[in-house]
Amino acid sequence: MKIVSFYTKNTGYQEEVKKLELSVKKTKHEIYVEGIKNLGSWDLNTKYKPFLILNAMKKYPDEDYFLFLDADAIVNKKIPMEDISGDIAVCHKAIESKKQKGWLLSGTVFIKNNDKMKDIMYEWIKINKKNPKTFDQDTLYTVLKNNFEEIEIQRLSLKYCKINGSKNSVHKKVKDPIISHNQASRRLKGKVNGQK
């Protein structure tokens, strides 16, 4: 398993990703990071995720899994890969339901390195292009919901995607997280979008 992430050059995300890299080094995992130019807005930058994952699949064809992490993530301990199965593992609710509206957190995503998941990444890119104002986690949710019968989707525990400082009581209850996120977007989104 190789961890993958990216950051927007000349923004505060360059400092955030250094903290991620340090946490990865401490937990003895490997990481591949790309720096990208600002694509025009914070929202457009987040839609780079499937491109990064496809780049990693091409660069590291022998890896069995990739773990995408947002640049503001911290790996708190060794990741127990024996807990990960399926084609994709993500924190979500109700992807398998045709009726119930659900959600997905795209800051922590395990992706199996196989042809099915390459196709999912290409579909994610297409849906992102058709929906430039929709959050990337919502477009990934749509892709997975449309394909849940063809791929194996594992629901991750919030221990893999605890959001530090969240007002949501669900995140407050998570003790001893494996991966945590620092909500850098609350501090940096306006700056990335060119606002003061």
CATH class: Alpha Beta
Q: How much β-strand is present in the residues?
A: 15-25%
* Terminal Cα span: 39 Å
Mean pLDDT: 87
Describe the strand arrangement of the main beta sheet, using strand numbers. 2-1-3-6-5-7
Query: What gyration radius follows from the Cα positions, in whole Å?
Result: 16 Å
Q: Portion of residues in helices?
A: 25-40%
Characterise the protein shown here.
The protein is α/β, with parallel strands linked by helices and 196 residues long. The chain contains seven helices and nine strands; from the N terminus they run E-H-E-H-H-E-E-E-E-H-H-E-E-H-E-H. The chain has one domain: Alpha-Beta Complex (Spore Coat Polysaccharide Biosynthesis Protein SpsA, Chain A), CATH 3.90.550. Helices cover 36% and strands 23% of the residues. The strands form two sheets. Strands 2-1-3-6-5-7 form a six-stranded mixed beta sheet, sandwiched between helices. The chain is globular and about 35 Å long.
What are its keywords?
3-stranded mixed sheet, alpha/beta, single chain, 6-stranded mixed sheet, 9 strands
In short:
With 196 residues, the chain is an alpha/beta fold.
Give me the secondary-structure topology.
Elements (H helix, E strand, L loop, with lengths): L1 E7 L4 H14 L4 E6 L5 H5 L2 H11 L5 E5 L3 E3 L12 E6 L9 E10 L2 H16 L5 H12 L5 E3 L6 E2 L5 H4 L6 E3 L2 H9 L4
Parallel strand pairs: 1-2, 1-3, 5-7, 8-9
Antiparallel strand pairs: 3-6, 4-9, 5-6
Helix pairs in contact: 3-4, 4-5
